[in-house]
Write a structure and sequence with these properties.
It comes from Vreelandella lutescens. 37% of the residues are buried. By secondary structure, the chain is an alpha+beta fold. The protein has three helices and six strands. It has one domain. Helix 1 packs parallel to helix 3.
């Protein structure tokens, strides 16, 4: 699985879905727009419904509930994670990333354009709040 770079400052949810689906940001954005999801909509990174709906369009199954992050070792092999979680005027916001473990190697795929590398293993610097298990992708 490869990271997908977000092309808009608020496009991390679309980019995470694209990475899980194995498609480009542009393809995922077209699909999102077709079902009424826009990157500029702040609920894309303050609610889970839009990302869940987009993943369903790609036939990707995820858990129905968010689970609190406890440790990197306890994560499933694939997960959507909420990092940089914060409250702004009483509303939660976060940055979406994808966690994937394959052949015993854990990696975070981070869509942020400004990063030197979008494949992250600097787990001490990443502060997940919660995650959604990804069952197939």
């Amino acid at each position: 699985m490869q990271p997908v770079i977000q092309e808009e400052i608020s496009g991390c949810g679309i980019a995470a879905c694209a990475a899980l689906a194995g498609i480009s940001y542009a393809q995922a954005k077209r699909e999102a727009n077709a079902i009424g999801i826009e990157a500029a909509d702040t609920s894309l990174w303050s609610e889970t419904a839009h990302v869940r709906r987009l993943l369903k369009e790609f036939d990707i199954s995820v858990s129905s509930k968010e689970a609190p992050f406890k440790s990197w070792e306890e994560l499933p092999d694939k997960a959507l994670m909420a990092i940089k979680w914060r409250l702004e005027q009483g509303r939660p916001f976060w940055h979406w990333v994808v966690f994937v473990r394959g052949s015993g190697v854990a990696t975070v795929l981070d869509s942020k354009k400004a990063l030197k590398t979008n494949i992250r293993r600097d787990f001490g610097r990443i502060k997940p709040k919660w995650y959604i298990t990804v069952y197939d992708a």
